[in-house]
Amino acid sequence: MVAVTPETGTSSTADARSGDLADQLRASFDAAVAAEERVEPRDWMPDEYRASLVRQMAQHAHSEIIGMQPEANWITRAPSLRRKAILMAKVQDEAGHGLYLYSAAETLGTSRDELLDKLHAGKQKYSSIFNYPTLTWADVGAIGWLVDGAAITNQVPICRCSYGPYARAMVRICKEESFHQRQGYELLLALSRGTEAQHAMAQDAVDRWWWPSLMMFGPPDDESAHSAQSMAWRIKRHSNDELRQRFVDIAVPQAESLGLTLPDPDIKWNEERGHHDFGAIDWAEFWDVLKGNGPCNEQRINQRRTAHEEGAWVRDAAAAYAEKHTSTGREVQA
Ligand code: 3HC
């Protein structure tokens, strides 16, 4: 990013000088973003850019750690040791994603504690999708295929986000999400090709997760408060509806290969548009879930608060260890 060095002159008033400087900084920032340069933590950035990034990154980080809950629900009941090991690794990956994202948000001057306090107080959001229950083992597969699939579609473009630390965190996250998506697909394929009851379980899970997965992309473009500005700042590269359409186009042939149907009779290829048409999304349900009225909102946030309280001793121990380590300047033996 181009550094802006204000000219040290003798302008008539301090106000005029600071006004000029603000304009210069702003112009330099806009030019750098337009030239696809990365914004780094020490670069000047508009307050609104910083605030919007913190908002989005916090929501993203919170989604990763709350998203551990519906899947962890099935670790003890996984049908084989292989499936259990895979699911444990996946849930652990989500915790790691949260860590990368909270760390990236810290580079903007907001601490992880501050963001977690806001989540626990209901002042920041997490993805609507995690307010739905995992009722059967097949839901683990549907989450992998559809939820992680939707997440990848949304998140690969964030690897080119204008803010360096967020973009770099997303590269690794997307690689891991890709593995998650494949394990879900493979799990559903096994069920779909299994007994009649297993096939029915897979179909039921897809029926329940399809529409909430489409809602993950956010409200329609004409109701998206942040899209226009975020796209101008190159935080977002595509609109909510563009990414939703991309996801539908990817999912339709995958469902066919799985031998499962998507619960939308209106899905059909539109030759003229070169995309699949699909039915109307129930946006009233989406906004209701955001207001806290989804099937699991209360359960998720309560469990998160309890986990945070019960984990206090781990944070205290880690802080004491770090303190000892830095005060002696030597490695501490376990
Ligand atoms: N769930 C909850 N809130 C949502 C939402 C959703 N599915 N979609 C939008 N919203 C919220 C927005 O955060 C915003 O609220 P705010 O003003 O309080 O922040 C409001 O609805 C209006 O939406 P906008 O379209 O104006 O918001 P954005 O421009 O920020 O777009 C987004 C929403 C597409 C989700 C964007 O923030 C984004 O791409 N975020 C990064 C990715 C992310 O957070 N994904 C969450 C899922 S992560 C995950 O799934 C984990 C994986 O392991 C599966």
TrEMBL record:
Matching InterPro entries, A to Z? Aromatic_CoA_ox/epox, Ferritin-like, Ferritin-like_SF, PaaA, PaaA_PaaC
Question: What parts of the sequence cross the membrane?
Answer: none
* Single biological process term from Gene Ontology: phenylacetate catabolic process
Query: Molecular function terms in GO for this entry?
Result: phenylacetyl-CoA 1,2-epoxidase activity
Q: What Pfam families does the database record attribute to this sequence? A: PaaA_PaaC
Keywords linked to the UniProt accession: Oxidoreductase
Q: What Enzyme Commission number(s) does the record list for this chain?
A: 1.14.13.149
Please indicate which superkingdom the organism of origin belongs to: Bacteria
Which Gene Ontology CC terms are recorded?
cytosol
* Name of this chain's protein: 1,2-phenylacetyl-CoA epoxidase, subunit A
Q: What is the lineage of its organism?
A: Bacteria, Bacillati, Actinomycetota, Actinomycetes, Kitasatosporales
Which gene is the coding source of this polypeptide chain?
A: paaA
